[in-house]
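Quality-control log, excerpt.
Job 1 of 2 completed; input and output follow.
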Amino acid sequence: MSLHAPKLAPRDCGDCQIRHRAVCARCDGDELARLEEMKYYRSFQAGQNIVWSADRMDFVGSVVSGIATLTQTMEDGRRQMVGMLLPSDFVGRPGRAIAPYDVTAVTDLVMCCFRRKPFEEMMATTPHVAQRLLEMTLDELDAAREWMLLLGRKTAREKIASFLTILARRETGLKAKTPKGQISFDLPLTREEMADYLGLTLETVSRQMSALKRDGVLELEEKRRITVPNYDRLAEETGDDADGGMLA
């Protein structure tokens, strides 16, 4: 994942780097052809809003490359980051025309978009698309429940380690690999954004990141590039059971 130079969107669905994880993962040739007819790509620069809360959404789609955040604003103006969208994650909800959150690109981002009405019609006649979207929705629900545990019960060190394991697992998952050994990836959020997302202070995030580096759990390279020398060692720092763990 590059922070500033997202890969160009593929012209053919079969060549797409998120093909095996996205909403089209189970589609056959005829179904892919139908999606091809309604899809289009959109690019966003880092910091650009993809959609504002309460705006009408005439499209749904998948993140092809880059990272976005989901943010909710309270009546008094306070803002809270409530989620992240990583490559292959789905944006928008069929049957819901209004966006519930602000969606903002935090890195340069490319989306594969589908016009909402044709996509909803296809869902009604294509079990593969509906089944895959249901699977993704249930995965998102499980991840939200795990995030409740993280915010409510984990220590600051465990929170940061859990967040990093999510990024590491998604980095390897996009390559259809199991996370193990050494893994490198870009940190999509600033430390201020991490503090907001994890319910910590900026000072705590900086202190715990430095401690993980000092203990050899991670290596901090130029800009925001992170190398995890041993994924299992990082996973041990999350506080999760050996047969459980954060869902990504």
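Job 2 of 2 completed; input and output follow.
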Amino acid sequence: MKKTLAALALALGLAAAPAAAQVPAAIGVSYQPSLYWALPFHYATVKGWWAQVGLNPNFSTFPAGAPQVAAAAARSWDVGGTGSVPAVLGAVRFNLMTIGITNDESKTNAVMVRGDRFDAIRANPASLRGQRLLLTTNSTVHFAARRCLERLGVNPADMQFVNLGQAQIITALTSNNGDIAGVWAPNTYTLEERANARYLCSGAEANAIVPGALIVRSDFARERPDDVAKFLAVYLRGWSWAKANPAEARRLALDFYKQGGLEVSERAMDQEFALRPTFGLDEQLRMMARSGGAASTVDGWFSEIGKFATEVGTIPANPEASSYITDDFLKRVAANPQLRAFATEFDRR
């Protein structure tokens, strides 16, 4: 294995020069802590993969996607991962580009009800009208919650949407100061365990596909396209490795969540890995391919997200998906034999 990695580093042009000349390129990486889709960043740090492609990440963390994408205006980060709703918001307001998919989190963005209220609401969804729904606005769960209400026959306008951070929502439900919440994993599992909360409806049940997005500032993409491709290769390698090493991947995931201030059970972590599909290089290329000018699968997903963002007034109009979604950097990874091998090394195991 060491010989293989050394050969790879040489092929990438990363190990041929003296150490003094091998200064990894700084790159700002943004994400939200204690979230499943951010795990490849942690795996890469633990395993030393960033340096192997000549990158030196400087991490920035945010409690939610809206403040994360807003920080791009100050060039405080270069690349990162976020939810699809903030990715669309970031495209419209800050010229952010979506260059890949982190995971499918449709099953883990959900409306949940405290246990002692669940049966009554489940039996009569119309009773939701006029009640408070605690959620984080301009987020993926905001999108999923609206689609869930529509599926249940409830007009979202008839609910009282209360904008809170996810930690505040957990505190509210566990202290009996709220009954109904829109949350994303792993907060869903926390509410199950601490408030006996139950799933009323997930995005998947409401046919609301909720992808996570890998994003980049458009100016950074123009200036350093090769480093953007290397970033993608590192991320893809993370999921490739995790699928080949499930036990260690879960152990490191528990550590990562704890570092972000959230302790979850092993059962909850098993749910994370079971409920959130991730995609390798070739899968991503197929999902993002536009054949004969037709919209890609990913275009369709984000068009629905943009429609939601327009409905709630977050953006003035739904942008064309092709104006901010590109597979160019995935293609760079695929076209470079060394980067492809690096990104997909564990796929064959």
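Post-run check on job 2. Confidence is low (pLDDT under 50) at residues 1-7, 13-21.
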